[in-house]
Design goal:
By secondary structure, the protein is of the alpha+beta class. It has twelve helices and 15 strands. A hairpin with a 2-residue loop joins strand 10 and strand 11 (278-285).
Length: 328
């Protein structure tokens, strides 16, 4: 619902009073049932200081279904719906408002920790913070608690979860303001961090670098992982980030291409991004025995000095032509 629809539902008098009660909302929640109906609820403080449990139900397209409030005014018939319900509806409308028309290319990114499919149907949000991407990377690269087969199964669910436009808009993060620093989870192992960033910069979606990751900031507790930026300090990760960001920016296939798994077994993971007549293949070794290095196409980036193998915690990125073209 937008403000005009809420005004029509409440009437002018209660609508104006409801606007003043927006700041009195606490403990707001939102759930979605199997039919796609959203249930929003909150505790809204009344004029006498008491809190009233207020709830409303809205269809997937935002249209109103019903509402209720535990306040005596609503029960005694002060209008069809009370000011507390109005405040809840206005709060929900603002949270789900479209991007300002003054900037038509603006996007709305939601901080959603779980599956965000409900929010990405084109009428609420354009993207969401991809915490599952971080979770799967943590298990595979940082903790080494899953093998490549399991990891590939996990990330494949991310590729199938959303429509294509939402998939390529996902905010792929390794760190945020609410979680322990990823480098700390890696045991401050830069090799693990580098492979994680390599995947982040070559995976469908929008890679998001949290401040200080390039400076090697660490921290497990909130006071640690929200520490001040390490201005003036240098770290090997700075060059790693520059190199991998430049790789993504230079090659459109890494931004727009399909994602295809080539091989996933044990500690070896290989995948390609295919775009128009170009294929870019990433092959990485998560600390296992050396594996033969691919020899097709043009070498774009390599970690490790032996061009015949990919050793432990090393990788290669290669480019080749597809659809009948010659190798680059």
């Amino acid at each position: 619902m937008d403000a005009d629809e809420i005004r029509a539902l409440l009437g002018d008098n209660i609508f104006e009073r409801a606007k003043k009660y927006r700041k009195r909302i606490q403990q707001s929640t939102c759930t979605v049932n199997a039919d796609g109906v959203r249930h929003i609820s909150a505790m809204v403080q009344g004029s006498g200081g008491s809190y009233y449990y207020t709830q409303a139900w809205l269809r997937e397209n935002g249209s109103f279904v019903s509402a209720s409030c535990s306040c005596p005014y609503n029960q005694n018939g002060e209008g069809t719906y009370c000011k507390h319900i109005g405040a809840l509806l206005l709060d929900d409308a603002e949270k789900n408002a479209p991007a300002p028309a003054a900037k038509p290319d603006a996007i709305i990114v939601g901080e959603v920790w779980e599956n965000a499919a409900h929010y990405l149907n084109g009428d609420m949000m354009d993207s969401a913070m991809n915490y599952d991407f971080r979770r799967y990377c943590r298990r595979f690269f940082a903790e080494e608690t899953v093998d490549a087969e399991t990891f590939d199964t996990n990330v494949s669910t991310l590729l199938l979860r959303y429509r294509e436009n939402a998939l390529f808009a996902q905010l792929n993060l390794l760190d945020s303001h609410d979680v322990s620093r990823y480098l700390s989870l890696c045991g401050e192992n830069v090799d693990k961090m580098e492979l994680s960033v390599l995947l982040q910069m070559t995976f469908p979606g929008m890679p998001c670098v949290f401040y200080g990751d390039e400076k090697g900031l660490c921290g497990v507790s909130e006071s640690e992982y929200r520490q001040a930026m390490a201005w003036g300090e240098s770290h090997p990760l700075e060059d790693i980030y520059r190199r991998l960001i430049a790789l993504r920016k230079e090659h459109p296939a890494l931004r727009y291409g399909d994602f295809v798994t080539n091989f996933a077994a044990g500690k070896t993971y290989s995948y390609s991004r295919n775009w128009e007549n170009t294929r870019i293949t990433v092959t990485m070794n998560l600390g296992g025995a050396p594996i033969p290095a691919p020899q097709t196409g043009r070498l774009l980036l390599k970690k490790g000095g032996n061009h015949d193998i990919i050793g432990a915690w090393e990788y290669e990125v290669r480019e080749e032509r597809i659809h009948g073209g010659d190798d680059l």
